[in-house]
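Before relying on records like the one below, remember that each one covers exactly one chain. Contacts with other chains, cofactors or solvent are not represented anywhere in the record.
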Amino acid sequence: MNVTLSKRGDYVVRSAVALARAYPGGGYRKIREVVADVDVPQTFASQILADLVRAEIASSRAGKDGGYRLVRSPESVSLLELVEAGEGPLRSARCALGEGPCRWEAVCPLHETWAAATGALRDTLAKTSLAVLAARDEALESGDYPAPPDSHRHGTSTLSIEDSVQVELSDQALVRRLARAEPLLASCVKYGYKEAEELRTGVDPASLPWSGAGPAMIALSAGAPGTEHVYRVMWEVGGSRGPSSRFEGTLIVHRVDDMRTELGLEGRFRPPSSLAESDLALAERLSRTTVRTMLRELARELEQPARSSRRQRVTVR
């Protein structure tokens, strides 16, 4: 018997976790930021967040500074509320055994046990707060949360990646250009995968492809208020018809001098499981090449408005 959440319930809980992690900052989260944080499908995100609003767990506001945020602290929101916001009331809608002999007209032999099991589940969910889920999510992101023995997830391990590049712009000029750089990021990510794929074919033409499609999801957003030089970055490439990989991390702007800025990128990269399972060393090399090339291409493009001519691209190996 399957006791997992439906897709809708799944997405409601994910979205609530994203809002809970943003709650200390006090601001509203845009739909695209929630999508980037917890991989909720863009096409359903507004419906899912509306479920949280109807359940009086979140509120919404239109406008440039609008979005969604929790109306209560994560400590005061229970997992039971979240599940019921997405799934409806958690209760037995009919007799557990259905129809039966005429002596079962009032109650079946399973009624009391089933009612007790349902009550125990409700009690467990009610005792688990959204704050607990958000804390676990942060621990998982940092790699500090151990996987339990009965974990149902057996995906490819992610790689911790850090890289940096100097940009020939002042930090303030770079920040202004990053505010409009999300569309640019897609082409830079695509270029990074292209370079890595060329490296793969040169190293081992018989190995599995590095990426089956262009970027399926891209997000670049400013961090919490007061951290204007820190940006959240996420992309996913590939999908159901090809190998999929994903990066989640942060871009950090460091001032070097009046005309130069260091742009640092750090986060976790999940290589395509198909290649990682067959050749982990090659998958790690391609992961780092993808990120390194993307970052250098992004720096080159950000510098471009200040230049009179384009500089020839340098292939990273």
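The chain has two domains: 7-142, 159-306.
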